[in-house]
Amino acid sequence: MSQAPMRIRRFIIRTVLILLLIVLGMAMYNIGREYSVLLDNGTVTIDGREYPVIAYGSLIIDGDERKAIDIWEDDRLLQKLVGTSHTLRVLVLDEDDDSAQKTAERKIEMDFDTREWMISLAAIAGESERILIPNPIYIGEQETAPLDDEIQDDADGIPEF
Amino acid sequence: MMNRLKQFLISNSVPIVFVGLSALAIPISGYSAGYLVQEMITRLARNSFLVLSLLIPIMAGMGLNFGMVLGAMAGQIGLIFAINWSVVGIPGLVLASLISMPIAVFLGFVCGNVLNRAKGREMVTSYILGFFTNGVYQFVVLYAMGNILPVTSPQLILSRGYGIRNAVTLTGLRLALDRAMNFQFKLGDFTVNMPIGTFLLIGVFCLFILWFRGTKLGQDMRAIGQDMAAADSAGIAVERTRVIAIIISTVLAAFGQVIFLQNIGTMNTYNSHEQTGMFSIAALLIGGATISKASISNVFIGVTLFHLMFVVSPTAGKELIGQAQLGEYFRVFVSYGIIAAALVLHAWKRLRERQASRRGLRGETQG
Description:
The structure holds two protein chains of two kinds. Chain A has helices at residues 4-32, 121-125, 136-141, 148-153; strands at 34-40, 44-46, 49-51, 56-61, 69-72, 76-82, 85-93, 100-109, 117-120, 132-134. Chain A has two domains: 1-32; 34-157, Immunoglobulin-like. In chain A, a hairpin with a 2-residue loop joins strand 2 and strand 3. Chain A is of the alpha+beta class. Chain B is mainly alpha-helical. Chain B has one domain (2-362): ABC transporter involved in vitamin B12 uptake, BtuC (Orthogonal Bundle). Helix content of chain B is 71%, strand content 5%. Chain B has a two-stranded antiparallel ribbon with strand order 1-4. In chain B, strands 2-3 form a two-stranded antiparallel ribbon. In chain B, strand 2 (182-187) and strand 3 form a beta hairpin. The longest helix of chain B is centred in the C-terminal third of the chain and has 38 residues, at 325-362. Chain B starts with a helix and ends in a 5-residue tail after the last helix.
C-alpha cells in the first residue's frame, strides 16, 4: 500500500492542529487583552454641541452593579477593561436622595488607541453619537501635536462607535 | 515476612528518613496544623505539574530530565509576551502556554537529539545543556527583546530601551488559575484556601500519564526504558521515541513553569528557571522515586515532604540554635545531597545487578 495518502492525511491533521492552536491563541488574546481607558467627566463640545459635566452620578461597567463607580464633577478615571467589547451605563443622580435622573447606556468596542483617546462620560449621558475625545496628555507628548481647532475640524479621524 | 519488611524499608528509605525528620522538626518549629496544611496545599498546587513532567523521560529510561529547565525558559518567554500584550487572567496563562509550546518543542527536539548522541550519560548531558541554553536565553531576553523582538511594555523593558527587567511583576496573571475555582475550609482557627482549578489541571495531567502509559507510544517508551537494545531489535524506533519523550517533558515543564510563576506572582527573569530542575528532581527523589522508576504517588509524596522541610527547617533551625540560616543551609544541602545520594544508589544498584547477572551466568547461587 502506498505511503503517500497516509503522509498527506498526517500533514493535513498536523496543519489543522497548528491552525487550531493559532486560532485559540488569537481568541485568548482578544478575550484576555486588558485596556487602560481614561474616562473623563468634564464639559465637552462635540460637533458643535456642548455636553455638560455630570455633577454627581454613577458608572456601571458591563452591568456589574456591585462595582458601580461614583462620578463627581471633573473626575478623570483610569479603568482597566478586559476584552474588546464593553457596556458603559452612566446614571446621572440626584445629590440629595441618590435617585436616578437620567440613565444612558453605550456599547464600546476597544478598536481605538487608548493612549490617544478618552471616553467622555458627559457625551454618553448626553447620548452623543461620538463619545471619544482627545487625550490632552498624549497630545502634549507628541512633538507635532495638532491644535485643538485641527482636532475639531478633523472629525473624520475620530473612531465612531 | 522479615525479608519483605526489609525490602520495604530499603525501597522507601528516603521518604521514611524525611518523615522522621519532619516529625522532629514540626514540633520544634511551633507552626500550627492549619498553617502547615495551607502551605502544603499551596506548594502542591505550585510544584506538582513541574515534577510530573519528569515522569515520561524516566519511563523512557532517560533518567532525570535536568533539561526541564529548557521548558521552564520557554514558559517564561511565553509569560513575557503575555505581559507585553497585556493579556490577563486565564486567557493570559493559556496564551503564555501556547507561545511557550513551539519554543519548548524546538528546545526539546534539540535536547532529545543531543541526548541520543550521549546515551547512558543523559543526565549530565541535559544538565550541561541547561547551562548552555541558559546562555542563549539570556542573550534573547537581555539583548534581543526590545531590539529584535517586539517587546515594548515599560513594565518589562529596562530603561535603556532593550532587555527585560530582572524582576517582573505578573500583574493580572498572579493567582489567575488558583483563584479561578477557590474553595475555603476552616482548620482550627485557620482558613485554608484550596485552589481547585489548579488541582483539576494536575488531575488531568495525572490521567494523561496513566492513559499515555497504555498507548503504543507509552508501551514503546517502557520497552526502551527496560532494554534499549531489545526494543531496537523489536523494531521500535528508539531514537525517535526518546526525542518524543524529551519533547513531551519539555512542553509540560513549560506549562508547569507558567503555573508555578502565576502562583508566585513575580518572575525573576534571569533566575526563576535555574532552580526549577534541581528542586523538582530533589522532590521526586524524596518521594521515593529512583532514576529508573517513578510513579505519580512519588510526585505527591515527594513534593509534600520536600516542601514540608522547606517550611519548617528555617524556623526549627532558629529555635534550635537561634539561627534561621541553619534551616536555609539544610534545605540546600538536602536538595543537592538527595540527588547525589540517588545517583550513588543507582550506580550501586546497577553494579549489584551486573554482579548478580555475572554470577547467574557462572551458575552460582545469588547471595
